[in-house]
Amino acid sequence: MTHRVHPFVFRLGETTTWKSRWFNLKKFPALLREDTLLREWLWKRLAGMRVSSIEIERSPNTVTIIIKTARPGILIGRGGEGIERLRRDIERELRRIARRFKVRPAAEKRELKLTIEEVRSPEIDARIVGEEIKEDIEKRVRFRRILKQAVERVMSHREVQGVKIMLSGRLDGAEMSRTEWAKRGRIPLQTLRANVDYALVEALTTYGTIGIKVWIYKGDVFEKAEQKEEKS
Fold first, then answer.
1. Which residue of 39, 81, 94, 200 lies most exposed, with the fewest beta carbons within 10 A?
2. What's the pTM value of the predicted model, to 2 decimals?
3. Is 164 a domain residue?
4. Per the domain annotation, does 2 fall within a domain?
5. What's the chain look like in SS3?
């Protein structure tokens, strides 16, 4: 049997970095639980905002949340009112998590910083591509048409060298679930230096949940570094 490894975790320290960046030996379980619950809540809260990733950085008195999205204007709102509302909601959620697990009030006295970063190329971001496919599936568009259009759209970008999209579930309302996929180019999953962007998204339909997996290969990191050195 093969061993399945998450492409992002497999390359930690090589081409990817941690999405929670902090270290606290004494409070590690509590802070890890808080990060996990807060990130799950944010994914639901920001549904439809084309969010690529949610990163959390911590210092002794500060919690910094970095949200990367293809629609920063919608998220920030007019005059910054959207981001202020989101900050208040996050503070309320953190207090709710603290009360749920009976964390001491002193642990709540932290400064919250919210940073919004724009994704420059959303058409080659695996999470955003998965969100677009999810919306089409929930609108009951034929899955074969979705796969074909998504693959062509991603491969039209010059930076992309390979793409693979897999759908699993009761596709088009079929009585039996099955797996369908489309692939173009190369997807070197066993190469550490390969820059492979991966995302798993779930579409909720009247027939049940449909899983969406997206792999996008953007070339080798070492090759790009060597090309820059040659130009300089």
1. 81
2. 0.86
3. yes
4. no
5. CCCCCCHHHHCECCCECCCEECCCCCCHHHHHHHHHHHHHHHHHHCCCCCEEEEEEEEECCEEEEEEEECCHHHHHCHHHHHHHHHHHHHHHHHHHHHHHCCCCHHHHCCEEEEEEEECCCHHHCHHHHHHHHHHHHHCCCCHHHHHHHHHHHHHCCCCCCEEEEEEEECHHHCCCCEEEEEEEECCCCCCCCEEEEEEEEEEEECCEEEEEEEEEEEEEHHHHHHHHHHHC
